[in-house]
Amino acid sequence: MNANELADALQETEPYYSTDYKLFDKAATMLRQQQAEIEALKNKIKSYENLGNMMLDELLEKAQEK
């Protein structure tokens, strides 16, 4: 379960367990923001991996030319 799914679950159960629905909404919003940050970091990591692979390929090509 990721943070977005947990946020959805919180909002679905809020009427049954709490009269303070605003607290559930705040928690759900924070979870969604965290999931967005996680996805952004995953994409950043992939970018660095791709860059690293490109640099490695370039170094291997240069080494083969020698």
Secondary-structure blueprint:
Blueprint: H1 3-17, H2 21-65
**Helical segment tally?**
2
Q: State the separation between the terminal residues, measured CA to CA.
A: 51 Å
Global Rg: 22 Å
The total of beta strands comes to 0
Give the overall average pLDDT. 87
Give a short overview:
With 66 residues, the protein is mostly helical.
Notes on the structure:
With 66 residues, this protein is an all-alpha fold. The mean pLDDT is 87. The protein has one domain (3-65). The protein has 2 helices and no strands.
Q: How would you describe this structure in keywords?
A:
single chain, 66 residues, mainly alpha, 2 helices
